[in-house]
Amino acid sequence: xxxxxxxxxxxxxxxxxxxxxxxxxxxxxxxxxxxxxxxxxxxxxxxxxxxxxxxxxxxxxxxxxxxxxxxxxxxxxxxxxxxxxxxxxxxxxxxxxxxxxxxxxxxxxxxxxxxxxxxxxxxxxxxxxxxxxxxxxxxxxxxxxxxxxxxxxxxxxxxxxxxxxxxxxxxxxxxxxxxxxxxxxxxxxxxxxxxxxxxxxxxxxxxxx
Length: 209
Known about the structure:
The protein is mainly α and 209 residues long. The chain has one domain. The protein is built from 10 helices and no strands.
C-alpha cells in the first residue's frame, strides 16, 4: 500500500488524465476491499491520495475526485460487509462473516457500542467511522439489533462522507507542509497509523495499570 502511495507521489507531475485513469480506480478498489476486509488501513490511503492531489495543478478538481471516490468506495464496502453479516444473523447456523466480525470485537467494546446504539440510533455510525477501531463494534451491534439494511445505509452515508473528509484533511495538512509530495505522504501515512494505533495503546496501558 505504501509503495503504491510512494509511486503516486513520485509521479505527481504526470498529467491529471493519466492519474485519473490509473490512480482513482486503484484507490476505489483498495478502499472498497479495505472496508470489506478490515485489514487494509484505508485512512492512510485517503490521506496519501489527498497529498498527491494537493500537489496537482488542478488541485480543487483532484481533491474533489479523491473525496468522492473515497467516500463512495467506503460506503459500498460497508454495505457489502453489512449485507454479508445480515445473512449470518438471519441464518439458523450463522455465517463465517458474522463470526469473523464478532471475533474481532471485544465483549466490553461491543457492550459499549450496543449502549450507544440504543441511545443514539443510526447516528452513532458517524462517530464510529471517525473513531479508530470504532466501525466494527458498532456494525456488529447493528447486526445483533437486526437493523434493516436500508436504515444502516442511511446512517452510513454521512459516516463515510465525514470519514473521507477527516482523512483528506490530514492529507492536505501533510501536503501543505512540504514541497515534495513524498514527504507529505510519509507524514500523512505516519499520522494515520498513529491515530489507528491509539486505541490499542490505551487498552494495553489500562491492562498494565
